[in-house]
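[step 3/7] inverse_fold.run input=structure_tokens len=149
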């Protein structure tokens, strides 16, 4: 039970073709295009288009575990948290397969940290997110409100 909002920010490769193909296979996928306006404006377009209760940001160079959404939603509902994030692992193009394999096999347990600061959302949108990056972060739509990048 989710939607995917794809934003093509003026790509010059075959990304738009890939996005169109995905949209034709699944009605939950929406595609929006713009001239190259930058990552902040692309995220704002996505925020305007998204209809769900939760918002999750994922950039074109990110990969996530297939169960991440389910884990975040379950824990956010269980704890009453309005935001969830996770540690990330950088991976170069040269060692992509190795990094992907290690990421999927990794069963490390990271310490759970709870933040309850009024400035957390503002800091997040200013690039000072408690999780290190906005990609891989889920938030309740109500938390975001009218805040934009």
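[step 3/7] decode complete -> sequence:
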């Amino acid at each position: 039970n989710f939607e995917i909002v794809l934003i093509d920010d003026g790509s010059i490769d075959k990304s738009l073709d890939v996005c169109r193909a995905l949209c034709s296979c699944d009605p939950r996928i929406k595609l929006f295009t713009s001239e190259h306006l930058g990552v902040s404006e692309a995220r704002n377009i996505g925020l305007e288009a998204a209809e769900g209760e939760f918002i999750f940001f994922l950039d074109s160079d990110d990969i996530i575990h297939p169960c991440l959404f389910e884990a975040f939603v379950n824990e956010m509902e269980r704890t009453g948290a309005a935001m969830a994030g996770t540690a990330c692992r950088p991976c170069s193009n040269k060692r992509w397969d190795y990094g992907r394999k290690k990421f999927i096999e990794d069963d490390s347990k990271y310490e759970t940290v709870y933040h309850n600061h009024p400035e957390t959302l503002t800091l997040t949108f200013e690039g000072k997110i408690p999780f290190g990056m906005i990609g891989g972060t889920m938030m309740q739509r109500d938390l975001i409100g009218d805040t934009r990048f």
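[step 4/7] annotate
The two ends are 26 Å apart (CA to CA).
The CA atoms of residues 87 and 133 lie 9 Å apart.
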